[in-house]
Write a structure and sequence with these properties.
alpha/beta; HSP40/DNAj peptide-binding domain; 5-stranded parallel sheet; 4-stranded mixed sheet; 23 helices; 32 strands; extended; DnaJ_domain_CS; chaperone; unfolded protein binding; repeat
Length: 738
């Protein structure tokens, strides 16, 4: 039940699912904010995001432009809203760590599988699940109120992928595995509605909720059968064996390897539907019965009336090419549905593009029928524009796009059986090196190709590509055992601070002094004596990287002579020994919010050790240690105290004074109060972080038995004892006579 019109902030609001979340939020009357990068014609050539921005503005959405790296801006914005929903795409999963702080209610970008219940998947998918689990654990560790929503397969997305409703010429459908494994299909718009409902429901706070409507759990064969009945057609079913998907996941570059692993998990193993929902777990279609979700049958009827656009899949799962396996060429488009190939052929024919027939040989993965792929000729290239396949008037974004596409297609590591691949790759590199530089391009246009080549000294840096720092920026799937930040040594520090009980409850400001790496004052962080400077490394010619052949791969590795800096230092600064930083005391002021608890961790961005290369300092993690209080005990936001009653107070009742966080209050004691009984003082506990509510205070009664009695007290108690004994004897006698 919606408790109020909370302000909702959406990250990734122009993304595939994010736009549905924004629309659902506005439809339910919430003040809605969308945070994202500035949209320009260059960053979004199709204008789709600009059109979404116009739509959002007309609906009353407040658009805020910025980067996720702008921490102060994020914190300021988040403090103004009540609920934060992240619909960021897969490449930005880890960026959610930047937006967890200072959030009142966080719903991370999940919306897919239930990662805590799925195990034993292929490594590329496992890596993605590990990222999602890391976001969950980080969210839980901060104490930020959260809701995790798992909705498995998006209907419009995956049904388009499996059934090709847009392709009226389709004659065959691809079945993965045996086709008998069940999957859960949920409509994107329904997911968005349930997200907003759950975000406003106290029952779902700090819980995982699932969207698994029973009517939408089907196997591929059941799905195809239903589609055949609706279309009155019979499709040829092409089965892709599990071994083929496993091989693709092991040998394809990123992100194709991830897509193969996901398809394997969903449609071969049935990981999305092979677990039961426990009695204490929440399923949103039952939690909100007033919301009518879209069934698969209803969505297929919609597909019949209004077939979805081809871009659903072209921009996602099926953006794949051909990969070589052993002595043959394994036809990847066959695995990811043959209609992609046919539509490509039609598009090429309509655009008068030349296509080269390529026979697909038998390999260890099985035989396949001949297909066609687009051929690009390099041997007859007249100049750099021809090499990149652009015209002489192409702008910088067009040149860059052409280069990246060809670099991926022609890289030697993905064309090991083509002896000409390296030469073609180098030609593409050289062409882009010239055309991306305005000054060099002007000289090239003025002199012409032959004259420019004669005057070119070839003093390129020898990197994988201009404007690319390392190979993994172009081919992230080939990243070896490097860390996720490319090996950068971030100077993260962890310190502890001790607080009194009341400091933790009420919040406070602390001045912390700790040992950290600091910029060297003597050399100003240069690592060399003042007045000198490093020399360019002769081994790598200043690039910091050298070529190395490892097995079948030709890769670039950090230059061992200069350790990747591109510079050689002969005379080091005596203060820092060339490290550019020195160890010393660093002092910061830390604002500790009310309600922190023992072992909580506060992240202070940019307050850690200095970076030797002059980048932003690392982060400081402060672990909170709270001293015990002689009066108060804490359990989350609730407070517990003991109140001692005398025998007369417990017997006769009355009033007592009880300490609270705000001072003493009078509490009524009921007659006949027993030891261990308690009363609850509502809203007298600790303020819940990032909300306006407070916990409760529990008063536990302890009855004090006196150790020493006066003569009068003893006489009174003995008299009471005699009276009780007399009453007991009367009752016993009456029972015997009866």
């Amino acid at each position: 039940m919606i408790t109020g019109l909370d302000k909702i902030l959406v990250f990734g609001g122009t993304g595939y699912l994010g736009k549905h979340v924004v629309r659902a939020s506005i439809k339910m009357g919430h003040p809605t904010y969308v945070y994202g990068r500035p949209i320009t014609p260059n960053s979004n050539p199709s204008n789709s995001k600009m059109e979404l921005h116009k739509e959002f503005q007309s609906m009353g959405v407040i658009l805020i432009q910025g980067e996720l790296s702008e921490h102060e801006k994020l914190v300021s914005l988040i403090k103004q809203v009540d609920i934060v929903i992240s619909a960021l795409g897969t490449p930005c999963y880890m960026e959610q760590l930047r937006i967890i702080d200072a959030i009142k209610r966080f719903i991370p970008s999940e919306f897919g599988c239930e990662e805590d219940l799925i195990t034993a998947v292929l490594p590329p998918f496992q890596d993605l699940l590990d990222k999602k689990r890391k976001i969950r654990r980080a969210t839980e560790a901060t104490g930020v109120p959260f809701t995790f929503l798992s909705s498995t397969c998006f209907c419009a997305y995956f049904l388009s992928f499996l059934l090709h409703p847009h392709d009226k010429y389709s004659e065959e459908l691809t079945i993965y595995g045996t086709g008998e494994s069940k999957a859960v299909f949920t409509h994107e718009e329904d997911v968005a509605i349930y997200v907003i409902r759950a975000a406003n429901d106290l029952r779902t706070c700090n819980r995982t909720v699932l969207f698994r409507p029973s009517k939408n759990i089907l196997s591929q064969l059941e799905l195809v059968s239903l589609w055949e009945k609706k279309t009155s057609r019979s499709y040829n079913k092409v089965f892709v064996h599990e071994e083929e998907l496993v091989a693709l996941s092991e040998t394809s570059p990123h992100p194709e390897n991830v897509r193969a692993a996901i398809i394997h998990s969903i449609f071969v193993k049935g990981d999305m539907a092979n677990f039961e929902i426990g009695e204490d777990e929440m399923e949103v279609s039952k939690l909100y019965p007033d919301v009518e979700y879209t069934t698969v049958d209803q969505l297929l009827n919609d597909f019949m009336a209004n077939p979805p656009e081809f871009r659903y899949i072209y921009e996602s799962l099926l953006r794949v090419g051909y990969r070589r396996y052993g002595s043959g060429v394994f036809n990847q488009p066959r695995v990811f549905s043959s209609w992609n190939y046919r539509n490509g052929i039609r598009e090429a024919a309509n655009n008068n593009r030349s296509w080269l027939p390529l026979g697909v040989l038998k390999s260890n993965l099985g035989a396949s029928t001949p297909r066609s792929i687009h051929g690009t000729a390099f041997t007859a290239a007249r100049d750099y524009y021809d090499i990149l396949g652009v015209n002489n008037n192409a702008n910088a974004p067009e040149i860059k796009k052409a280069y990246y596409g060809l670099a991926k297609q022609l890289h030697p590591d993905t064309n090991k059986n083509d002896p000409e691949a390296e030469k073609k790759f180098q030609e593409v590199q050289k062409a882009y090196e010239v055309l991306k530089d305005e000054e060099k391009r002007a000289q090239y246009d003025q002199l012409g190709h032959d004259a420019f080549e004669e005057n070119d000294d070839g003093s390129g840096k020898g990197r994988w590509g201009p404007g690319v720092d390392n190979i993994w920026d172009i081919f992230p799937g080939f990243r070896p055992i490097f860390d996720r930040d490319g090996g950068k040594d971030v100077k993260v520090l962890i310190v502890a601070v001790e607080l009194s009980f009341m400091e933790a409850v009420q919040g406070c400001n602390k001045t912390l002094t700790f040992q950290a790496d600091l910029p060297c004052d003597t050399c100003g962080g240069a690592g060399v004596p003042p007045g000198t400077r490093p020399e360019t490394c002769r081994t790598c010619r200043g690039s910091g990287m050298i070529n190395k052949v490892t097995g079948p791969f030709r890769i670039q590795v950090t230059c061992s002579s200069c350790r990747g800096s591109g510079k050689i230092v002969k005379n080091f600064c005596k203060s820092c020994n060339g490290d550019k930083t020195v160890r010393g005391p660093k002092t910061i002021k830390l604002d500790i919010m009310p309600g922190v608890d023992d072992n909580d961790t506060i992240r202070a961005y940019g307050s850690g050790g200095a970076d030797p290369d002059g980048n932003q300092p690392g982060d400081l993690y402060v672990t909170i240690k709270v001293r015990e209080d002689p009066v108060f005990r804490r359990e989350g936001p609730d407070i517990h105290v003991d109140a001692v009653l005398s025998i007369p107070q417990a017997t006769l009742g009355g009033t007592i004074q009880v300490p609270t966080l705000m001072g003493d209050v009078v509490v009524k004691v009921r007659p006949g109060t027993q030891p261990g009984q308690k009363v609850v003082l509502k809203q007298k506990g600790i303020k819940t972080r990032n909300s306006y509510s407070f916990g409760d205070q529990y008063v536990h009664f302890i009855v004090s038995i006196p150790m020493n009695l006066s003569q009068r007290q003893r006489e009174l108690i003995e008299e009471l004892a005699k009276e009780e004994q007399g009453e007991y004897n009367k009752g016993a006698a009456a029972g015997a006579s009866a």
